[in-house]
Amino acid sequence: MIKLGDYNTLNILRHTSVGLFLGDEDGNEILLPNKYVPEHYEIADSINVFCYLDHEERPVAVTIKPKITINSFALLKVADVTEYGAFLDWGMEKHLFVPFKEQARKMEPGKWYMVYMYEDPKTGRLVASSKTDRFLDNSQMTLERFDEVELMVYRYTDLGTEMIVNGKYKGLVYKDEIYKKLHLGERLTGVVKKVRDDKKLDISLEKIGFKNLEPSAEKVLEVLEEHHGFLNLHDKSDPELIKEKLGMSKKSYKKAIGVLYKQKRIRIEEDGIYSL
Question: In this predicted structure, what is the pLDDT of residue 210?
Answer without folding.
Answer: 47
